[in-house]
Every structure is written in C-alpha cells, then in structure tokens.
C-alpha cells in the first residue's frame, strides 16, 4: 500500500479468519490482538461464535505496518504514519486508527497479561515488543517483580493445573531467564568491592538470585553471578580468585538449605584476610524459620529489599574494617 486511496480501494468485506491473515501477512494472531487492543488499528468483525473476521483491506493495512516495522520503525510510529496518510480519507470501521489524545501509560497488570499471552502463543517477537514497552514506561525493578516474577509464578500454577503444557512453561521460563540474564550485564560498577551470588548446592532455582543480582548491579555494586547449584568444595579456590567481599547463597528447598550447614568448614580454608562475609536466604528459610538458627552468617530476610539492605550493610562493614 503506497497511498490512502490504494488502501481504501481494497475490499472491506470481512471474510478471513486470523489463521488466514497470519498466512498472508506473517503477523501472528497474538500480535494482531495486541495491535487491536493497544492502538485500535484494527476493528475486525466477529462471527456468531466470537471469532475475528478480517477483510482484504485489513490485510493490506497489516502488511503496510509490518513492512514499516521491519524497516526499523516502532509500531506506535507506524500507526501514527498510517493515520496521517489516511487523515484526508473517509475511513471504514475495519481500518480505523485511533485519533483521540494519547492514552495514559499502560499498567503493569495489562503489560503482564499481554506478555503472558504472547509467550503462551510462542510469539517471541510480540513478547520483545511488550517487554521493551514495559521497560520504557516503568522502572526496571517494578517490571522484574510485577511482570516477570509474576508471570513465572503464573506459569507454574497454570502448568500444575493443566492449563498449559510443559512446552509452554519451558519456552516462557527460558525466554524470561534470558531477559533477566541480559539485565545483569547492564550498567557500570561504581561502588568498591565484590558480591558473589549463587544458589545453594543441588538447588536449580535461580530467579530469586537473578533478581537480587540485577537490583544490586543497578545500585552500582559489582556482582559476580555464580548461578545454580554452587558446590561448596569449590569455594576455597574460587572466592579468593574473585576477591569476593560477600558471598550470598540462596535455598529454595529444605534439602539445599541443609547442605549449607557445613559451609563454614569450607570458608575456614580461606585465609582470614580473603574470607568473605557469608549471607543466606530464600524460600526454604522463609518457610522453615527453624533452619535460620542452624546456619552461620547473616540471614537476608524474607523480602528482596531486606536482602539488599543486609548485603549493603555487610559490604559497608567490610569496607570500614579494612
């Protein structure tokens, strides 16, 4: 479509279902719904059963938008340009573009719903758009907690209840894990010292330590992310090499928490001048508070904010004692 007249000359009869539109345009149903919901760029008819029906004119508009997005234009800018081109023409309902004043920033709840739907549809391109929008509208910490962490919890619940398959859960969880790992690498370290963060032995759950690492990095700390299931026997060699001031290990389940009981014997093998302060926490300790008294070191507390406060206190104490 090169002009508004060319678009309006195309048939406006609603005859194509979403699958047919995707086949002709390469744009997934989840993306079509997102464009409709966010930008009002399409208002398809509905069958008696509630299924969307699109016209050839809708398909022409979708192709036009897709081509401009592939050329590097944002969807919001492409919609605005389409609106400008059609501004002097009489628009049929199926190709209406919103002309009202800009809408307020979308809430985290709405963004979470859109991202979840895109991931369940295996639509990574739309998920990227939604997540980029979230980062542009809201603080990264809020997106991590209220969108990413909430979706991870929903994925687990929906899988247990049979609402989604293992494939859905794995695809979505791995996508979100990649996005969190990317955030760890952003921003320079502006505060002295090193914090090493990982999961306790045999513990493969890492979303909590990923979030903690991201938030500390964003506060200027140098964080070394050790990842899942950190072997205690490796600590005497690795921690002096890292020059770690604080070691943080988290446990999600009781078995991994029990494995931390013997950590002091491994830390004692490190010369005192190089030995880091130790802190522990995680759902295992929150759920079974009696385990806290069995551990050496400082308990992080039950929230991510209390964990940050505890680690920063330990880092400041370390600096003052040097």
Structural commentary:
With 322 residues, the protein is an alpha/beta fold. The protein folds into three domains: 4-95, Orthogonal Bundle (Multidrug-efflux Transporter Regulator, Chain: A, Domain 2); 108-183, Methyltransferase, Methionine Synthase (B12-binding Domains), Chain A, domain 1 (Orthogonal Bundle); 188-321, Rossmann fold (3-Layer(aba) Sandwich). Helices cover 53% and strands 9% of the residues. It has 15 helices and seven strands. The strands form two sheets. It has a five-stranded parallel beta sheet with strand order 4-3-5-6-7. It has a two-stranded antiparallel sheet with strand order 1-2. Helix 8 runs antiparallel to helix 10 (207-218). It starts with a helix and ends with a helix.
Mean pLDDT: 83
Give the overall shape, derived from the CA principal axes. elongated
| Poorly predicted spans | 88-104
What is the rounded Rg?
25 Å
Number of helices: 15
CATH topology of the largest domain: Rossmann fold
> What would you call the structural class?
alpha/beta
Count of discrete structural domains: 3
- Beta-strand percent range: 5-15%
> Helicity range of the residues?
40-55%
Topology pattern, helix = H, strand = E: HHHEEHHHHHHEHEHEHHEHEH
CATH superfamily of the largest domain: Cobalamin-binding domain
- Biggest sheet character: 5 strands, parallel
The CATH architecture of the largest domain can be given as: 3-Layer(aba) Sandwich
Number of strands: 7
Strand order of the largest sheet: 4-3-5-6-7
CATH class category of the largest domain: Alpha Beta
Distance between the termini: 69 Å
């Amino acid at each position: 479509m090169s002009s508004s007249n060319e678009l309006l000359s195309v048939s406006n009869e609603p005859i194509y279902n979403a699958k047919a539109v995707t086949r002709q345009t390469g744009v997934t149903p989840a993306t079509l719904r997102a464009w409709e919901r966010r930008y009002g760029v399409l208002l398809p008819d509905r069958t008696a059963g509630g299924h969307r029906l699109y016209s050839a004119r809708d398909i022409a508009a979708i192709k036009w938008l897709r081509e401009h997005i592939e050329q590097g234009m944002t969807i919001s800018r492409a919609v605005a340009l389409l609106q400008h081109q059609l501004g002097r023409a009489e628009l049929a309902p199926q190709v209406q573009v919103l002309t009202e004043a800009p809408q307020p920033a979308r809430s985290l709840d709405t963004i979470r719903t859109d991202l979840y739907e895109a991931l369940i549809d295996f639509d990574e391109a739309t998920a990227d758009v939604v997540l980029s929008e979230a980062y542009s509208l809201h603080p990264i910490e809020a997106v991590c907690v209220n969108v990413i962490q909430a979706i991870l919890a929903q994925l687990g619940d929906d899988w247990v209840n049979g609402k989604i398959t293992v494939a859905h859960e794995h695809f979505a969880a791995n996508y979100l894990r990649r996005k969190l790992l990317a955030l760890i690498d952003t921003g320079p370290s502006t505060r002295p010292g090193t914090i090493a963060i990982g999961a306790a032995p045999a513990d493969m759950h890492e979303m909590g330590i990923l979030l903690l690492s991201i938030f500390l990095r964003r506060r200027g700390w140098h964080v070394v992310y050790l990842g899942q299931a950190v072997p205690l026997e490796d600590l005497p060699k690795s921690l002096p090499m890292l020059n770690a001031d604080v070691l943080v290990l988290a446990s999600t389940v009781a078995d991994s928490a029990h494995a931390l009981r013997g950590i002091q014997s491994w830390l004692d093998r490190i010369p005192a001048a190089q030995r880091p302060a130790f802190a522990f926490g995680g759902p295992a300790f929150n759920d079974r508070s009696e385990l806290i008294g069995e551990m050496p070191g400082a308990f992080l507390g039950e929230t991510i904010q209390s964990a940050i406060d505890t680690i920063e206190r330990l880092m400041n104490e370390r600096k003052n004692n040097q």
